[in-house]
Write a structure and sequence with these properties.
Blueprint: H1 16-20, H2 22-36, E1 39-43, E2 54-58, H3 60-63, E3 68-71, H4 77-92, E4 102-107, E5 110-119, E6 122-128
Parallel strand pairs: 3-6
Antiparallel strand pairs: 1-2, 2-3, 4-5, 5-6
């Protein structure tokens, strides 16, 4: 049964739970935890997140004793997954990221910034991506565009 009737419309993306069923989705999550120590959800119609995008990890708190990660920027799934994978490799190599950390080497020629956020009542580190000029400062970014990544974060 479809738990998300809004996905019955053909012009709207379909979530994995609706497309494949909860059992298959849970099996995929368990496999991700077993194989990689984490898995990701790509929610692209989340009304509570900037741009409607809520790309986030699960499992890092268990396997790496690290906050899970979140990206709230309209990126292709493969690009978002690559960014998360690069950060998680650094975590597995011993790096610990915290809110306020500005980090190079994740995206070529640009820094990213980690900020505190909440995803479904759990703390996460949101990865703030730079605007096309490389700016990460919320006050200097276009408020109608890149600065929206900061919506819902903690000061």
């Amino acid at each position: 049964m479809n738990d998300h009737p809004e996905h019955d419309r053909l012009d709207k993306p379909v979530c994995d739970a609706c497309a494949f069923g909860l059992d298959e989705m849970e099996a995929h999550e368990k496999e991700g935890m077993k194989k990689c120590g984490w898995y990701a959800h790509f929610v692209i119609d989340d009304d509570e997140m900037p741009y409607g995008y809520n790309i986030h990890t699960h499992g890092l708190d268990i396997t790496c004793k690290h906050l899970d990660l979140q990206i709230c920027c309209p990126l292709p799934i493969e690009v978002a997954h690559d960014i998360l994978s690069i950060i998680i490799k650094e975590i597995k190599d011993g790096d610990v990221f915290s809110a306020g950390a500005r980090v190079s080497g994740i995206i070529r020629n640009y820094d990213v910034l980690f900020v505190e956020a909440t995803e479904n009542d759990r703390p996460v580190l949101r990865v703030i991506l730079p605007d096309p000029t490389g700016c990460l400062d919320k006050d200097e970014m276009d408020p109608s565009d890149w600065a929206q990544q900061y919506n819902g974060t903690k000061p």
